[in-house]
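Problem: given the chain below (391 residues), write out its structure.
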Amino acid sequence: MTVWDELTGQADAIAVFRAAAAAASATPTEGAAEQAMSHAWLITGPPGSGRSNLAYAFATALISGHPDGDDATVAQVAARSHPDLTVLSTEGVSIKVDDVRAIVRSSSYSPSVGRHRVLVIEDADRMPERTSNVLLKALEEPPERTVWILCAPSEADLIPTIRSRVRSVRLRVPSIDDVAALLVARDGVSPEVAERAAREAQSHIGMARRLATSSEARERREATLVSALGIRTVSDAVAAAARMIEIAGDDAKAITLERDADEREKALRSLGVAPGQTLPPALRGQIKALEDDQKRRATRSLRDGIDRILVDFSSLHRDVLMLQLNGDSAIINRELLSRIERAASVGSAAETLRSLDAIAVARKRIEANVAPLLALEAMLMTFRRSERAAA
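Solution.
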């Protein structure tokens, strides 16, 4: 078993990184192909394509000095506890400049036990320009045996000066069959459930796993899509928008609530505050900083949940459009086929395209900090108008 085995649908990218790891571990007398290796990498690809998983697989190979990794390094990298691995990720809306300054400082250290020191920045697209500029010097002149790995949806998400200093590797969207096979092998779900989850997640590996392992997640998704097809009045649109916010909020709370409590308990313990003891005034600033970080994480989790709903809406209207254009060979939401056929029969392709445009606008508005409820209501009003015109 190798470090690359659980990466699916990325054979070309894996070949690039295995060759780089082999070149990095070779000695000069072995004639290593230096052109195969770079001191800074950018892994790009759509959400769910496995950017961070590939980054950590490559990090494991570099640190261990073996193209396929070794068991001890695999375990330490998986736990994010290897002394030669530094990770910067954010669960907030953006990466803070102080966090980038800290990882830049750590990049000057030599490897302690591994062949390389590796620094991974997940969601590098969340660095504002001022923050990105802090990183430039480190990328331009890294110490020997130090490797940077950045992850982002696309090269365009980073400033040009960052792009000019990294070697970019683009991931493709895995096939539904590849994702389904991974779910069967890794999570032990049935082939039927795995295929449905991979199809409905549109090959987003993380979302496919969630749908495959949670019947509640599948039911919530189906109920949300059914409600979108049933909007007839203004009140329907307003109620549906409120319900979508509630669903996204419940998902966000499920992800963050227990973690927030655990973080607070550990922080208090590390500060020497016993359970039930009044927090000393001198320590309130540290707990306030923790709470602020948790609020930022909750905001991002809510936005991510809403965005997943909007992606599902896009797949729904895409299915409607496929039927309207007589192309029913690749329906994503097959379990709702009868409802989709009814929606296709009462509307036109032009109206469906307007709905797809409204979804895209809603995503941009939410990304630009428009209140999610208002953005969803405006979008769902467009759904209502198109159906009323077709009636």
